Amino acid sequence: MRCRAELYRTNSASIDTAIALAVTAAVLLLLSNAYPLVALQLNGSVRATTLVGAAIGLYNQGYAPVAALVLLTTLLVPLFQISGLLYVLVPLRGGRRAPGQNELFRALTHLRPWAMSEVFMLGALVALVKLSALAEVIPGVSLFSYGALMLALSALTSITPTEQFWRWVDGGGQ
Amino acid sequence: MSTYVMGRTVGLLVCTHCHATVRAIQSSHALCPRCGARVHERRPHSLSATAALVLSAAALYVPANLLPVMHMHTFFSEEDDTIMSGVLSLIQEGSWPLALLVFVASIVVPLLKLVAMGWLLISVARQSPGNAQQKSRLFRLVEFIGRLSMLDVYAIALLVSLVQIRSLATIQVGLGALCFGTVVVLTMLAAQSFDERLLWDSHSDD
């Protein structure tokens, strides 16, 4: 009221919607890592990379911290968020509490700014434009599934705000 | 007449995690009864922790922009790319919307974050009354846009792992990329450790 920030927002989204979105995001995350992001064609030789491949590329050149940063923000944090939410929400739907629920949800809230799928998509766009000057670029399956994952994740975080979660807890999963 | 009260003048605290209102207890290790998070009237050492993180980030901002972030080696040429020269080469290729995006994300945003956080810290330390509402808005903006700076790190990661065609073209990571990534992480941590409520402590309403 005083600083004009939104105090909180709750919505009518049910816990089922949240679970469905989390499952969708999990499948997309799996797809995004199973297929190459982009391939590069130059003088007949083709080179493709996946998300993990990009991190390995950095690691191989001796930049382990940067590799870890990329791996964490694009893969591990989203993975932890999806599985953590599922672990908490599924029992909650049946009116039960998962062991360690409160600590886990607190960790999830703290980690939220560290999942950077949308920034990654922009970075990929920049890289693709730079490369197109050099060689032929072929976008891979996982570029699209990663884009969809970005949408699913942001929908998921917007329907599970902290306040909403604690209402679900207080209301016994209603 | 003011339409709100300050929690600490009436003995109430708000859990920064789950937003439950908690009756203030004298102990400094109060736990929120709903979610079990630690409840503080003000986060301890928020000011010094944030200041330390901002200063380290500011120091690293210089090499992050001066050192090359990558080194490209092709059949025809060999060149070092800093963040700024990457922006310039995007302009040369005619994709100025992307050049603008990279410029804002990698150069303007980190600088804006450092200056804004520094100013907020100084104004809290000097307890200058100022316009707390404006400061609060600035802080939320800084918190929100900070992640955008990771963009360049991702672009570099993809370039490095894709362009490894021996004898034709290879790209090596530069030390600048490490500095730059560290700047982004440090400024994000700084925004997280800053207790926004401090902005309002020297605020008066009349």
Write up this protein:
The complex is a heterodimer of chains A (174) and B (206). Chain A has 174 residues and is mainly α. Chain A has a single domain, classed as Butyryl-CoA Dehydrogenase, subunit A, domain 3 (Up-down Bundle), CATH 1.20.140. Chain A has helices at residues 15-34, 51-60, 64-93, 101-111, 117-132, 141-159, 162-170, and strands at 38-42, 45-49, 136-139. In chain A, strand 1 and strand 2 form a beta hairpin. Chain A is elongated and about 65 Å long. The relative contact order of chain A is 0.19. The model of chain A has no long low-confidence stretch (mean pLDDT 82). Chain B is 53% helix and 11% strand. Chain B is built from seven helices and six strands; from the N terminus they run E-E-H-E-E-H-H-H-H-E-E-H-H. In chain B, strands 4-3-6-5 form a four-stranded antiparallel sheet. In chain B, strands 1-2 form a two-stranded antiparallel ribbon.
